[in-house]
Amino acid sequence: MNRRVSCLExxxxxxxxxxxxxxxxxxxxxxxxxxxxxERERYSGCPPPELCLAFDQAVEFAxxxxxxxxxxxxxxxxxxxxxxxxxxxxxxxxxxxxARPVALPVMPRAVSVLLKTTDENATVDELERIAATDPVxxxxxxxxSNSAKYGSRFQIVRLRDAVMRLGVPEARKTLVAACLSxxxxxxxxxxxxxxxxxxxxxxxxxAAACGLEPEMAWLAGLLHDIGRxxxxxxxxxxxxxxxxxxxxxxxxxxxxxxxxxxxxAELGGxxxxxxxxxxxxxxxxxTHHRPEASASGLSSVLFLAEDTPVRLGTAPVEDLWPxxxxxxxxxxxxxxxxxxxxxxxxxxxxxxxxx
Length: 355
Description:
Blueprint: H1 7-13, E1 21-22, E2 25-26, H2 30-39, H3 49-60, H4 69-78, H5 84-93, H6 109-114, H7 124-131, H8 135-145, H9 159-166, H10 168-181, H11 187-209, H12 214-223, H13 226-231, H14 236-247, H15 252-260, H16 264-274, H17 279-286, H18 297-311, H19 322-333, H20 337-344
Antiparallel strand pairs: 1-2
């Protein structure tokens, strides 16, 4: 594996064109200043342009200091160097309260049981027993086993036979996906669930290519945006604030932090920690937009899996310094862009338990 590239090393050597782009323009520190100047007339104290730009610069260089955007903002306002003007700016860029989910569902018990198994130690009996605890799980398992993919003219009607036809690894994935899909049941969240499945499949392939655990990567990919589910439970004014920043051209993690006080990756990590998931998955989800902040290769796998449509030009950039972070993630996984391109060459579709 190649030597790790630090954020500062990359920054010093990166071409100007690789720096963050807002609304299609490469202006490293102008974004916050441009938008905040439009907002400042609403508040007393009128933060000056120099303060707005200093704020944005502090956020932009957070990666070089190993900080999240939320940590950089807290540090910026901890130093009261600008007096009343700083207080006025704080009213604009800090939410009225730190976001906390108000109605996040409890993790399904079946998932808790499934996550204590692995492909190596799970058994046909155990998966049959788990599927039998819930009619939805049973239906998904039977539907998957009777899909055209397996091409049998004999219909499966018993759960045990379904597990055996699918095989333990596939049956386990079917049950986990069926459990978690219920959390994204509303129409508004279906697109997020589809995205999560695509990223999970990409994470499996990338992990397998770089010698990490594909099963763990798949699970982390399935859960990587669970924090966005948490944000969906908050009062509407939070989401309105997020939309304002997004429309101004801010990347998603920056806009979320300005609206909620933290981004979906950090909130997702908090939720998974409360669900007592494996530490490796919690860490990877928490840092999947900041691979430089984790010693785990799993975080880099998630970054690269979600970065695929960004590199292909079919999805917007969600974080700051994507080129730098792509370089770091490749270094930490031992992959290069050519190898990733080979993985991307096949069409990737959501994992469907009812194919």
